[in-house]
Design goal:
globular, 143 residues, single chain, mainly alpha, disordered N terminus
Length: 143
């Protein structure tokens, strides 16, 4: 009976995953700071376009968050050696969220005329749920 109750009531599952979700959000915040720092350096120091500078900033942020998720959010992933294949799976798994992130960012700084940081915040928050689902269910799922 308890098994049936748990399947019908999502609360136990949410409680079980709440720590993981909090760690995911914390790593996401670090990824946001990495993304923002690289983006601002490329735009204001290297003189890159606000649009095109976002591509390398996202790649650096993906690499940082992949490493942090392996060691902190989904700690069981440390049981296997990191690999290029896992990084690619992480990057691909987050491509939908990151594509959504980039699309929103470009629309907000372009046609909508938003500032760089406001657009970055809105785009990053919008992509977080997609990235978590792909990471938890595919990239770092337990064997």
């Amino acid at each position: 009976m308890d098994g049936d109750t748990n399947r019908m009531n999502p609360r136990p599952d949410i409680r079980r995953h709440s720590g993981q979700i909090m760690r995911f959000l914390l790593v996401g915040a670090v990824g946001f700071l990495v993304d923002a720092a690289v983006l601002l350096l490329l735009v204001h120091v290297a003189g890159m376009s606000r649009v095109w500078a976002r591509i390398p900033s996202v790649l650096v942020a993906i690499t940082a968050t992949w490493w942090l998720h392996r060691h902190f959010t989904f700690a069981w992933a440390r049981e296997t050696a990191p690999s290029g294949k896992e990084w690619l799976r992480f990057a691909f798994g987050n491509a939908v969220g990151n594509g959504f992130n980039l699309g929103i960012y470009w629309l907000l700084i372009g046609p909508a005329g938003w500032g760089i940081m406001s657009a970055l915040v809105v785009a990053s928050v919008a992509a977080a749920a997609i990235n978590y689902a792909m990471s938890a269910r595919w990239v770092f799922r337990r064997a």
